[in-house]
From TrEMBL:
<keyword id="KW-0808">Transferase</keyword>
<protein>
    <submittedName>
        <fullName>Glycosyltransferase, group 2 family</fullName>
    </submittedName>
</protein>
<dbReference type="GO" id="GO:0016758">
    <property type="term" value="F:hexosyltransferase activity"/>
</dbReference>
<dbReference type="Pfam" id="PF00535">
    <property type="entry name" value="Glycos_transf_2"/>
</dbReference>
<dbReference type="InterPro" id="IPR001173">
    <property type="entry name" value="Glyco_trans_2-like"/>
</dbReference>
<dbReference type="InterPro" id="IPR029044">
    <property type="entry name" value="Nucleotide-diphossugar_trans"/>
</dbReference>
<feature type="domain" description="Glycosyltransferase 2-like">
    <location>
        <begin position="12"/>
        <end position="47"/>
    </location>
</feature>
Length: 47
């Protein structure tokens, strides 16, 4: 049986989101609009 391995993203983008309500949507949209797509986006409520 052949094992299937999930490919890990090349980079991780970590965004602190405590008290960022005004800017969070624009921040996420900007990250998702990039041409580089091999990443994981991690949002951390650091409050």
């Amino acid at each position: 049986m052949q094992e299937q391995h999930k490919k890990q993203p090349e980079i991780s983008i970590i965004v602190p989101v405590y008290k960022t309500e005004r800017f969070l949507s624009a921040c996420i949209s900007s990250i998702l609009a990039q041409t580089f797509t091999d990443f994981e986006l991690i949002l951390v409520d650091d409050g």
